[in-house]
Design brief:
Shape: globular
Strand order of the largest sheet: 9-8-7-3-2-1-11-10
Helix content: 25-40%
Number of strands: 16
Number of helices: 15
Strand content: 5-15%
Bound molecules: alpha-D-glucopyranose
Largest sheet: 8 strands, parallel
Length: 534
């Protein structure tokens, strides 16, 4: 599954923001790369307070991305090329520009219009304090006070994300009915499924109890034994059972994929029980340290958790919310997951990062289950780690008062042609986020048909993955030295060396693909993964 971030994939009209016709024009790239399906981040009408994750109309296309007819064309063209299309569904919150919220603001406290969201009276004198201690994932309080229709200071509304993203009240049957209708709208247009944004957030603990953030304050998931009152409440599962029934009433295969920052793996697995969603992103895998024991543990745990409910395990290393893995893995071992990297921050080691990213990718693409790729990683693209802070657009940057750089560095428009304006992203120099000066070397046209290029490694891996049925295979570990991971999947032996010294492959194995050159005597050097025929 290949994630397209429409703002940054391909810009046909030259306004510096990618668009749906741009994606349609480049579908050939995805076929050549060898993916099965694409997931499109939101392209719906939106004030873009959170790059489109603030949806004002769930049944249309924002003019910056095109028209509804362009979505139809994209779906049709993708299907004609054998690609499935998954769209993003954002049910936890609407945009503050959504007609429902506009209506709610104009209506008095206690009105049916306000009941669609989470409005509460404040605490303290005259209700001047927020109703509880919850904080926005992007920084600051999770509540904003609004005036009553008569202009006097009134109630507060909940927004677990930006002020422009009011949380919906999922206890209300009307909200549920509306989203089932939205699902039907896109299923009727032919989409193959949905990636469900913040799937662990829809239902809140009824008493909205205070929460004192014992650990990483802005993390979406709880740690073992403590479940925050705003995340992973048991009530969400009923919603996904309803949606599953709805999807199953459509012909063909349609899927639901959960974005749920939930730990441990067993709690996450509940989202993919047989009558719920089909897959859930495995963020524990994304967050795991680059060491043999950490990788062994997370792979083993992930497989066991999803096997227990009969769902495919998933694997992901990058997306539009995290530092790209070619940079993340170039940070010193033990660095906690950064929320963006800026010019003043310690910089990743680009060479080490790319080397490890390639090894991690080959390790991932050999695992049984579903693998998710994020646009640009097939080019070995690093994070933009020196972006001018003035150029930042992620609300995280402002809401955290500059404490968190945020996610712009992984969202920069991707390079297609080394010598073209905006590296071929669009016909002009315009790019909604600045592209780093050094990106020509990552451009697709510098890598196609170049032996050893990251792009060619991805292509070869995806082809072998298909040929050897690795996605549907079974993993069995092979005993090795402490710093090495080795497993079999079907007729392949996969070896990753995390240690300093090279390791030999067993006699008689024939290397098929490796993430870096092998030693002159065939040994696997540090931070290299090899696929070999066993
Ligand atoms: C998800 C999206 C992220 C967005 C947030 C709020 O985590 O992946 O980009 O900011 O939800 O919708």
């Amino acid at each position: 599954m290949y994630q397209i971030y429409p703002r940054s994939f391909s810009d046909i009209d030259g306004d510096g923001i990618g668009d749906l016709p741009g994606i349609t024009a480049r579908l050939g790239h995805l076929v050549e790369l060898g993916v099965d399906a694409v997931w499109l981040s939101p392209f719906y009408p939106s004030p873009q307070a959170d790059a489109g994750y603030d949806v004002a109309d769930y049944r249309d296309v924002d003019p910056i991305f095109g028209r509804l007819a362009d979505a139809d064309e994209l779906i049709a063209q993708a299907h004609a090329r054998g690609l499935r299309v998954i769209v993003d569904l954002v049910p936890n919150h609407t945009s503050s520009a959504h007609p429902w919220f506009v209506e709610a603001l104009a209506a008095p406290a206690g009105s049916p219009a306000r009941a669609r969201y989470v409005f509460r009276d404040g605490r303290g004198t005259d209700g001047a304090e927020p109703p509880n201690t919850w904080r926005s994932v992007f920084g600051g309080p999770a509540w904003t006070r609004v005036p009553d229709p008569d202009g006097r200071p009134g109630q507060w509304y909940l927004h677990l994300f930006d002020v422009g993203q009011p949380d919906l009240n999922w206890d209300l049957p009307e909200v549920r009915a509306e989203f089932e209708d939205v699902l039907r709208f896109w299923l009727d247009r032919g989409v193959d499924g949905f990636r469900v944004d913040v799937a662990h957030g829809l239902v809140k603990q009824a008493d909205l109890a205070d929460w004192h953030y014992p650990e990483e304050p802005l993390s979406g998931g709880g740690s073992e034994g403590v479940r925050p009152p705003m995340w992973d409440q048991d009530g969400v599962h009923e919603i996904y059972r309803d949606w599953r029934r709805l999807l199953d009433s459509y012909p063909g295969e349609r899927i639901l994929v959960a974005e749920a920052w939930v730990q441990p793996a067993e709690r996450l697995a509940a989202y993919v029980r047989p009558d719920e969603m089909h897959q859930a992103f495995n963020f524990e895998y994304l967050l795991a340290a680059w060491t043999a024991p950490a990788q062994y543990a997370v792979i083993t745990r992930s497989l066991a958790a999803t096997d227990a409910v009969g769902a495919p395990t998933t694997w992901v290393l990058s997306n539009h919310d995290v530092v790209r893995h070619a940079s993340r893995l170039g940070l010193p071992p033990g660095t906690p997951k950064p929320n963006g990297i800026g010019a003043g921050d310690p910089q990743p080691d680009a060479a080490v990062g790319l080397r490890r990213a390639r090894a991690a990718t080959l390790l991932m693409l050999a695992l049984p289950g579903s693998a998710y790729l994020y646009q640009g990683e097939e080019l070995g693209l690093p994070e933009h780690t020196t972006m001018d802070d003035d150029a930042r657009q992620d609300p995280t940057w402002k809401r955290s008062g500059g404490a968190e750089r945020g996610r712009d560095g992984c969202r920069v428009p991707i390079p297609w042609e080394a010598d073209a304006p905006s590296y071929g992203f669009g016909p002009t120099d315009a790019s909604w986020l600045p592209q780093p000066a050094l990106w020509a070397e990552y451009a697709l046209d510098r890598q196609r048909e170049v032996a050893g290029a990251t792009y060619e490694m991805y292509r070869a891996a995806l082809m072998l993955r298909r040929e050897h049925g690795l996605g549907r295979g079974t993993l069995s570990w092979v005993d090795t030295a402490d710093d090495v991971l080795a497993f079999r999947n079907g007729d392949l032996l996969v070896v990753t060396n995390f240690g300093a010294d090279p390791v030999g492959l067993p006699a008689g194995t024939q290397p098929l693909l490796s993430s870096g050159p092998l030693d002159s005597d065939g040994g696997v050097p540090t931070d290299v993964t090899v696929w070999a025929r066993a």
